[in-house]
Amino acid sequence: MVCLYQAKKTFCEMSRNMVQRLKSAEKAGLSDAQRAFAVLDEFCHEHDGNSAQVLVDSITNTARIAVFQTARMQRLFKAFPEDRYKLFRFVVHDVFGKRQYVQHALVETEHMVNLRKVVEIFKENNPDWIKIRVAMTDKAVHEKGVLKEQWPEARQLLCQWHVITWLKKQATRLAPAVKKEAKSLMRLLYEDGKGALLDLLGGDKAHELYKFFLSNWDANREEWVSYLRGNVPHLTNNTNNRIESKWGKIKDVIKDSLSIDQLLSTLITLQEYGEEQYMVEYHRIGSRPARIDEDPELSLLGLQLSSFAFDLIEKQFGLATGAGADYTVDLAVPGQATLTSPRTGESYQVNTR
């Protein structure tokens, strides 16, 4: 407990000193965009594999987007696939079942063109983006539209906490007479809840709350209703609240008054500190559960995955190696395995890279 507190205190002091040095450098007469270029140029030269991009408005000379990834952020992703700047972050599920950042992006506004560019830069730096199968967001339509366009193979899920919160607000606004009962129904998150809601509203299909529910939530219920996403590899994640928790910790250090170069330097320092702590925990003896299995390959794999991901793979492994398995494997093509069922003649290709 004491060591953790001291480490955090030292880190915060280092961050404050860094920002003070940046503030003193402002007298050099450089614009925010120029200082952002300087910060990210230094960042890219610190370690091989670090990458960054800054997009500047040619008319106003304002930095519109600033994106950076450390080399370790790229490896983590591959391993686990107005006036103020907005922080747009990508997070993955790590070996400990927690969240790790794999890209930070500062955007001038959350317009689709900016968000689209952020995702395009992510794809440029991470060829394994094609393996993304699940993306969870809140109900920000512009974000969902960009992700659907850029990651067409990924199943989009809605954070259930955001769904319930929105529905509670609408129940209070549109059905104040039965708001308590309506709020309770919002927690059901299954098909019967729609019928129960209609009964509560006296069977009035023209009621504003019922129409709101149908137009905003019923049409995309496969994104948030629990029983409709049982076959999706979401690793038991039903909310993105942990991202909000991580954001709260960042706000302890980042202030609204910081300029873009100060924001970037602070974020880089935060990221480097977080990566150091992750590696310490990763290599600590006993930090990952030793899963004893009859198959040595599966036991070794168990050290590299979270318990949720391992449970999924263990079931698939048992099916693939069990007595009922009926297929042949062709490894003639490098990086590719072709599985063929002699019984049906159907084939399935697996990327083994």
UniProtKB/TrEMBL annotation:
PANTHER family the UniProt entry points to: SWIM-TYPE DOMAIN-CONTAINING PROTEIN (PTHR31569)
Superkingdom, taxonomy of origin: Eukaryota
Domain ZSWIM1/3 RNaseH-like: 41-157
Any single Pfam family the record assigns to this protein: ZSWIM1-3_RNaseH-like
Organism whose genome encodes this protein: Phytophthora palmivora
Name of the featured protein: ZSWIM1/3 RNaseH-like domain-containing protein
Lineage of origin: Eukaryota, Sar, Stramenopiles, Oomycota, Peronosporomycetes
